[in-house]
Amino acid sequence: MENKATTINGRKRKPTERSQKTQHLILNVAKQLISQHGFENTTAKDIAQAAGVAEGTVFLHFDNKQGIVNNIVTDFYERLQKSSEAIVAQQLDPFQKMRALIKNQLKMMEADWQLGRIIFGRHGRYVDNEFADEFYRLNRNYARLYIELIDNLKENGRIRTTTPSPLIRDTLLGSMEHFAISNFPHKRTYDLENFIDQLFDLVFFGCSQRSSG
To answer: What CA–CA distances, in Å, run from 50 to 29, 43, 53, 55, 194?
Structure first.
């Protein structure tokens, strides 16, 4: 997450170490409050009080509450990207890497579903038009990891080449999001490994009856 320059009397100044710590404090407090109470029920005043700073200090570092959300989304994607790239770099079978990517994302989403709703819901995607380009850049960079693995499977004859890679990727990611929405808000008991097995069987091997001949 990049630290934005602080504007004082119309002049942009590079953040000092102290201002960076304050910005991180505000962001961490905002994550906790939004996680506990939701986006709509958390105000900038709440965040300022919990962080022990003036409300004006919050707006010095973030233009508005949506600006805080934008930083939360960016922080999530940066952590997701870093952990996912580490998975892809391992000496594993591409299918194993794919399974690990899916499990990693779902575990991160489950860890704090209130934030997950913001990141994968309307706050991350639709509310702030100025942030839309950045959101799609982050999402595109992450989704590219799936495309690379899918293309690798095609090149090695592991799956058929006639199905477009973006369609396979979107089916995987869409199924994961639906699984999260169906289970995480209600704290249902689920078998994650079984879900991944079923998803793989459907996406990569189909669900038609195989001929015994």
So the answer is: 7, 11, 8, 10, 41
Containing 203, the helix (H) or strand (E) segment is helix 192-205
Q: Identify which of 26, 25, 42 has the alpha carbon closest to the alpha carbon of residue 34.
A: 42
Rounded Cα distance, 27 and 58, in Å = 9
Q: Provide the 3-class DSSP secondary structure of residue 46.
A: helix
The candidate with the shortest Cα–Cα distance to 119, out of 73, 62, 158, 170, is: 73
Q: What is the pTM of this model?
A: 0.81
- Collect all residues with Cβ–Cβ distance below 8 Å to 70 and sequence separation of at least 6: 128, 131, 134
pLDDT(201) > 60: yes
Amino acid at 164: P
The residues, any chain, with a CB within 8 Å of residue 208's CB and separated by 6 or more, are none
Q: What is the pLDDT of residue 8?
A: 38
pLDDT (tens digit per residue) in 109-144: 888 787 777 776 655 555 556 788 888 899 999 999
10: Cβ contacts below 8 Å, ≥ 6 apart: none
State the DSSP string of 47-100: HHHHHTS-HHHHHHHSSSHHHHHHHHHHHHHHHHHHHHHHHHTSS--HHHHHHH
